[in-house]
């Protein structure tokens, strides 16, 4: 995850990196709500 976000920032898109991070966090929260996973990685 860090490599992905760092790559996005390195290409000059820090706002996009923040949006990607927020989306991934929401996705993992959704998985936890539905008992697909027990905790975020």
Show the helix and strand layout.
Elements: H1 2-10, H2 14-33
Helix pairs in contact: 1-2
Structure description:
- The protein has 41 residues and is mainly alpha-helical.
- It has one domain (2-33).
- Helix content is 71%, strand content 0%.
- The protein contains 2 helices and no strands.
Features:
41 residues; 71% helix; 2 helices; mainly alpha
**What structural category arises from helix and sheet content?**
mainly alpha
Q: What is the averaged pLDDT score?
A: 97
Number of distinct helices: 2
Strand element count: 0
Major beta sheet summary: none
Shape type: elongated
Question: What proportion of the residues form beta strands (DSSP E)?
Answer: under 5%
What's the domain count?
A: 1
From the N-terminal CA to the C-terminal CA, the straight-line distance is 10 Å
Radius of gyration: 12 Å
Helix content: over 70%
Q: Which segments are poorly predicted (pLDDT under 50) over 5 or more consecutive residues?
A: none
H/E element string? HH
